[in-house]
Design a protein that fits this description.
MeMalonyl-CoA_epimerase, isomerase, methylmalonyl-CoA epimerase, alpha+beta
Length: 134
């Protein structure tokens, strides 16, 4: 069921500084900031040869990453995202296995215009896990 690693997300306290570091120090291909109001974040995608890095910065008052940045003020790895072919089949199988699907359990459209879901980090070895249908 599980496919490619789509991205690793890193929450950062300064989006411009983090973008500049990947662009200038690491020589990476860095995209433009993208506001995602439905998700409460601004994202910058960094294209690597084999996957992507998603830099995350809080957007709005109820951002799901605000608490994470309070606990980790220097930033840190926030989630990993795996590709699946059928997100509803994946969701139902994981729910049957006892994993908690976050939110109302229905996929939302993510930063790539594709349906996404999140699994609770406590059910995934301490790692918040996003699934993206490709
Ligand atoms: C741009 C769109 C999309 C994409 O297309 O790529 C995105 O990536 S959006 C990214 C942001 N969206 C989300 O994170 C949505 C899912 N997240 C949530 O629903 C919540 O953030 C959460 C995971 C349920 C956490 O809720 P919160 O209220 O912030 O924290 P708690 O303090 O209640 O956390 C409970 C427990 O879990 C630990 N935790 C929290 N976040 C993480 C994390 N990112 N990684 C690992 N562990 C995490 C937290 O430390 C608590 O543990 P204890 O202290 O042991 O109780
Ligand atoms: Co993500």
């Amino acid at each position: 069921m599980i496919g490619r690693l789509n991205h690793v997300a890193i929450a950062v306290p300064d989006l411009e500084a983090a973008s500049a570091q990947y662009r200038d120090a690491l020589g990476a291909k860095v995209g433009a900031p993208q506001d995602e109001p439905d998700h409460g974040v601004t994202v910058v995608f960094i294209e690597l040869p084999n996957t992507k890095i998603e830099l995350l910065y809080p957007l709005g008052e109820d951002s799901p990453i605000a608490g994470f940045l309070e606990k980790n003020p220097a930033g840190g790895i926030h989630h990993v995202c795996y590709e699946v072919e059928d997100i509803i089949a994946a969701r139902d199988k994981l729910k049957e296995a006892g994993l908690r699907v976050l939110g109302n359990g229905e996929p939302k459209i993510g930063a790539h215009g594709k349906p996404v879901l999140f699994l609770h980090p406590k059910d995934m070895n301490g790692t918040l896990t996003e699934l993206e249908q490709v």
